[in-house]
Amino acid sequence: MGKKVMIVAGEASGDLHGANLVKALRHLSPDLEIVGIGGEKMKAAGVEILFDISQMAIVGFTEVLSQFKKLRRIFLKTCRVIKTEELAALILIDYPGFNLRLAAHVKKHKLEIPVIYYISPQVWAWGKGRVKRIAELVDKMIVVFPFEREIYRNEGLPVEFVGHPLLDVIGERESEEKTATDLNVSLDNPIVGLLPGSRRQEINRLLPLMLKAAKLMRKEMPTLRFILPRASTVSSPEIGNLLPPDLEVSVVTDKTYKVMALADLLLVASGTATLEAACVGTPMIIVYKVSLLNWLLAKSLIKIPHLGLVNVVAGRKVVPEFLQFEAEPRRLASAALSLLEDRDKQELMKKDLKAVKAQLGRPGASRRAAHLVLEMTEDRERKTAEDRRQRTEDREQKTEDRR
Prior knowledge:
The protein has 403 residues and is of the alpha/beta class. Helix content is 53%, strand content 15%.
C-alpha cells in the first residue's frame, strides 16, 4: 500500500504552488496518494479534492466571520479525514487562519503526523508574536523568501529556504508577436493589464475602481487597450456584470502571464501577483482596498511600511502603492499615465524589479520542497517501523517473563 499525504491550500496562489509541489512529489514518488483541499490546478495534478477553494477564498476579518459556519464545517470534516486516514504527512500552504488550526488539531490529538508548512504565513508583516506558536505546531517550515529563515531559526523551528516557485511557473517569455496573437490584440497600441485579484471580495471592490481609472486614462490616451485575465476562482458572469458598456475590455482566461508579459503597465491587487509581475519584469501600480473595519483592524496589526510583496522583498518602495483611501480612480489614472509617458521611469522600475527577482533564489523550488517532504515521510516510516519493532519485542519479553 502506497503512502498518503494531505495537502491544504485555501486560495488561488496556494492552488498553483500546491499543484506544482504535487507534480514534483509524483515524479519522485509515483505511488504516493494525495488528498486535500485545493482548486482546479491541484485536481488536475492528481489530488483527490475534499473541498474546493472556491468555497474558501475569503479576504478580510469581517468576511471570515460571515462565513464562519461554512469554514467550520469544512474544518471539522477535514479533521475527521486526518484522524481516520493513515497520513504520512500533512502539508499546509499559507492560509494561516485555517491551516494553523489544523496543525493544532494534529498536536492536540497526538496524531504523530509530520506537519510541514510550505509558503509561510506572512508573520513578518502582521504577526511575529505568532512565530512561537507556529514553532510549537509545525515540524518543518519550508520558506520561499530568504529573510524568513532567521525568523523561524530564532525560535528553534527546522526551516529550509527553497527559493520561490514562481520562478518555475512563469518560465521564459514568448515573442511579443506570438503572445499578441494568442491574446488577439494588436501591438500597435499601448496595453494596460487589469489584475483585481482572485477572490470575489477583491473583484467586487477593486475591479470597479480599476475600470473607472481605465475610463479616465482612455480619455487622455485614446489608443490605450485594456486586458483583464480572469482567475479560475471567479466565473465569467461575475466579471461580465461589472464591465461597463462604454469601455472595451478584453477578458481572457488562464493567460495571466501572457497578459503580464505583453502589457506596458499593470494595475494589480496587492499580493502574489505583484511578485509574478516582478518576475516577468512589467512595470506596475499596486492597488488595494477593503472594508473600513477590515482596514482599521489590519492597520493595527501590520508592522511593515509597505504592503505590496514586491516592495517588501525590495526593502523599499520600488512600485507605487495606492491603498484604501488613496485608492481613488483619478489618482490611479494620473500615476498610470505618468508612468506610461515616461520611458526613464519605466526603465528604472524594470531594473528594480529585476533585482527583486534575483532575491527569490534559483528555479527548482517545487522539486526541492518535494525532496524535503519525502524525507519527512521516510523519517516517519522509519520511526513507525522502529516503534512497531519495539512493541513486538516488549510483547515477546512479557511472554518470556510469564514463562
